[in-house]
Amino acid sequence: MAYAVTAKKNKGRELFFTNQLELQRVEKAEVLKTIGKNPYRHNTKRDINTNEFKNRFAYINDLEDKKDDKIVSTLIGRIKFLRWMGKAVFAKIEDEDGDLQIYFNKEALGEEWFVHVKKLLDVGDIVQVSGYPFITKTGELSLHATNLEIATKSITPLPEKFHGLQDKELRYRQRYLDIIMNPEVKQTFKSRSKIISVIRRFFEEHGFLEVETPMMHPIPGGANAKPFVTFHNALGVERYLRIAPELYLKRLIVGGFNAVFEINRNFRNEGLDLTHNPEFTSIEFYWAHHNYKDLMDLTEKLLHTLLKALNLPEILSYDNKIIDFSKPFERISHKEALTKIGDIDASILNDKKAIEQKIRADGFDLKPNLNLGQLHSELFDNYVENKLINPTFITQYPIEISPLARKNDENKNIAERFELFIAGNELANGFNELNDPLDQYARFMAQLEAKAAGDDEAHEMDEDYIKALGYGFAPTAGEGLGIDRLVMLLTNQTSIRDVILFPAMKQLKPNDKQNDEGDNK
User: Fold this and answer.
1) What is this structure's pTM?
2) Residue pLDDT tens, the chain, 521 long
3) Which of 98, 121, 324, 448 is in the most buried spot, having the most CB atoms within 10 Å?
4) CB atoms inside a 10 Å sphere around CB 472
5) Backbone torsions φ then ψ of 283, nearest 5 degrees
6) Alpha-carbon torsion angle 332, 338, 341, 344, nearest 10
7) What is the torsion angle, in degrees rounded to the nearest 10, for the CA atoms of residue 11, residue 16, residue 17 and residue 19?
8) Cα dist. 397→288, 366, 375, 414, 444 in Å?
9) Which residues of the chain does CATH 2.40.50.140 include?
10) What is the rounded distance in angstroms from the CA atom of residue 260 to the CA atom of residue 303?
């Protein structure tokens, strides 16, 4: 039977796959059809995965003949390695839980099918195999296959095994291939799923109700950020992908819910770097009749719950830093952090010109016409943030950079607010919510003035939210926690793109070619 490719057409159809190795595999798929084997089956079934197989049959090693041919198991996995040894074959198959060596020979499969398999099976194919457990001469628990079916024929060869998939750009663009080739990537996203599950259960156990709020907003609100703009054809109006769910969640507190949370995506039309992606996942939660100190306690408890659930130590290594979760999280005011951690001379903190001179003299960029609170924020970003390695709550932020937070009763210049920093990154932001509708209106007006002066991230006026506050907003504390950065921390990943399955990427131009790094490169 011929297996060579003679044309770049398949029964009159132009092929998407034109590489010679791909064309050969296309031909193999056609041959499978001619011998009555569907190369793209849908009726596969397994009764065990690779990890369960290893655990269930560990006892085989203690048997005298090192096998148990009375027990037949069926597994499904992708061929990751093939070694032909005359009339016998050793292969590695991989599923979601791990990999397993399989062995089959001409006697087990029958001579005719064995010949076909030898010519048609490739690394990358997904197979269904049935057989019994045994121990090889090298001492490896394996499956002696008595039946093998090609469930899905792989057309594009996998990258060469020794070098694997190393091109970071390609890994992010073709995440499916990244997961196939790099087991540690799969484990990272399994951990991410578990982290989100633990967070959800934690809040439910503390009496919070999970809710869902709109993704498209008539007014971008809830944070200072530049939004993505879209158009609603049915309504004939512009809509904004949400930058935060905050104002809708607080409306629910007005409506009478006492504790709500939402885990979902936010969208901010901003730059990309190691800790920022234009779409990201967060949890926001609001707790009536509690204050921001209660939120700090709850957040600290959540972090310890996550460490325990993931079997992580309280002294954690991350990005060559040692982070100590065993001690109570430090709490220090924003102004104290500037002087004690940032080594800023306290005498300049009320002098705008002196602050501007220092920032520029030290080589940092600075926007013009910043108010005092914004300048304090610049000092913090430049001199403090990257020094906050152990979990630290920074409290009492300048009111000028906290347009939705409640003023402190004793000092009207500071907000009853905190942010949590770990390993030099901000993970959470929380505060006592502003529930005075007149004060909130004045804050929104000040934000409009900032926008008119050129601040394209300033908050918009939201008159419906003011109206909601007018009906009475119970004393409430609210917080947002970045899940992507939290996953980075708990899985020891230094780039946000390594914890988002499909991160934002620059669009390839028609003439750009991706290097598949495979056998066909």
Assistant:
1) 0.90
2) 445 544 445 555 667 888 899 999 999 999 999 999 999 999 999 999 999 999 999 999 999 999 999 999 999 999 999 998 878 899 999 999 999 999 999 999 999 999 999 999 999 999 999 999 999 999 999 999 999 999 999 999 998 754 556 678 888 999 999 999 999 999 999 999 999 999 999 999 999 999 999 999 999 988 888 999 999 999 999 999 999 999 999 999 999 999 999 999 999 999 899 999 999 999 999 999 999 999 999 999 999 999 999 999 999 999 999 999 999 999 999 999 999 999 999 999 999 999 999 999 999 999 998 999 999 999 999 999 999 999 999 999 999 999 889 999 999 999 999 999 999 999 999 999 999 999 999 989 988 888 888 877 788 899 999 999 999 999 999 999 999 999 999 999 999 999 999 999 888 776 665 544 443 33
3) 121
4) 9
5) -115, 130
6) -150
7) 110
8) 21, 20, 12, 5, 18
9) 9-157
10) 19
Sequence ranges of the chain with CATH classification 3.30.930.10: 162-289+474-521
Q: Which two tokens stand for residue 3?
A: 């297996």
Residue whose pair of structure tokens reads 């991706």 in the numeric block:
514
Query: CATH number of the domain at 9-157, please?
Result: 2.40.50.140
